Amino acid sequence: MTLVLRANPFEVAPAPRPRPRHLRNAHKLRALRANANSSCWWWDAAEEIGLQLRAESFVAIDDFCGPSCFELRAEAESALARAEQGRVAGSGDGSAAQRLRGDRTVWASQAAPGSVPSLPPLVSRLSGLAGRLAALLPDELADVQLRSDAQLAFYPATGARYVRHVDNTCSSGRGRLCNGRRLTAVYYLNREWRESDGGELRILGRDGESGREAPLLDVAPKLDRLLVFFSDGRVPHEVLPSFAPRYAATVWLLSASELQAAAPDRRESQGVLPMGAEGTASSAVCAGSSTTQGGPAEAGAKPCGMQGVSELERGAEGWPNCPEAAPSPTEPR
User: Fold this and answer.
1) Cα Rg of the chain (Å, integer)
2) What pLDDT is stored for residue 9 in this prediction?
3) DSSP secondary structure string, 23-48?
């Protein structure tokens, strides 16, 4: 991620007022979820999700993974307890670096083997969603055939935050700052989140009157919420100070062509993997494309983004066959 500093990067502006279009968007997705009979309700709602992503450059999807992923919080806590603080984050001494970014992170591949068993179901569903969105937004996502390793992040309850930044400062797919990131997908792991806990991801946009950058929307880091947004300058964002332990898992969906042209360190630093649930070394084969990582597309190749959905999770028609709708994560288990 690249920091883009304001005159006072530590200033926290007041929360923005809810905008009617954002309230309408959330209502539409809630209605689609209420009428669904599968925990993969977002599969049939993909067209609306794609419309919101195209119009706003971000979309928040609640009840994304269900109980299959609820233990990821405990697994992340364990993995992060053994990890060093994030590369940019400080050492807890009040340093300027920590004030800019106060989280602790670890890549899933660095965790002990078998210690994050709840991650494959999440990435499997994310791969399925990516395939649907690629079909709906081909101009933006046609070559999103790869993903990053999953990054587990923890913000201590000490006001830890991450100041304004964008995840990819690449310009039109070219330049030394390109890192291949096309979409950012953040999955939140915080049960019983309260407004006083802080830690919202604040999306920034241009004020219609002054043209200045201003807060656009605060997204609460609630359990089982997936926030998807374009990684480039369309979505500058920040994580507001956290006053309760805040956990999340982030996966970046990568443009194969941009990544190929990126500097080696920007490719290697994020653990590039095929779009698969467990990050196996198999090549990414995408139906409907003329080439793959290893050569011509194979007959019967899976659609881009669906390699990660195991045969047990796939229905006969090729879409995820998820369990029936699960209880809300706020309900007793």
Assistant:
1) 19
2) 67
3) HHHHHHHHHHHHT-SBTTHHHHTHHH
pTM for this entry: 0.82
Place of tokens 């309900």: 331
Alpha-helical regions (H) of 231-275:
256-261, 264-268
Q: What pLDDT, on a 0 to 100 scale, did the predictor assign at position 293?
A: 33
237 assigned to some structural domain: yes
Q: How many domains does the chain have?
A: 1
Which amino acid is located at 174 in the chain? R
Cβ(200)–Cβ(221) under 8 Å? yes
Residues of the chain with pLDDT under 50: 3-5, 85-92, 277, 279-321, 323-333
DSSP conformational letter for 12:
-
Dist CA 106 CA 115 (whole Å): 13
DSSP symbols for 42-88: HHHTHHHHHHHHHHHSEEEESS-SGGGGTTHHHHHHHHHHTSPPPSS
| 296 part of a folded domain | no
Q: Rounded distance, CA 305 to CA 319, Å?
A: 11
Query: Residue 297: phi, psi to the nearest 5?
Result: -65, 140
Question: How large is the angle between the packed helices 119-136 and 46-56, nearest 10 degrees?
Answer: 70
CATH number at residue 222: 2.60.120.620
Q: What is the pLDDT of residue 306?
A: 35
Residue with tokens 């068993």: 117
In a domain, 330, yes or no: no
Alpha-carbon 128 to chain mean position:
14
**Which residues form the domain of 197?**
21-274
How many other C-beta atoms can be found within 10 angstroms of the C-beta atom of residue 221?
25
Q: How far is residue 15's CA from residue 106's CA, in Å, rounded to a whole number?
A: 30
In a domain, 298, yes or no: no
pLDDT (tens digit, 9 = 90+) per residue, 110-151? Answer: 998 999 999 999 999 999 999 999 999 999 998 998 999 999
Interatomic CA distance for residues 149 and 269, integer angstroms: 10
Contact 116, 76 (CB under 8 A): yes
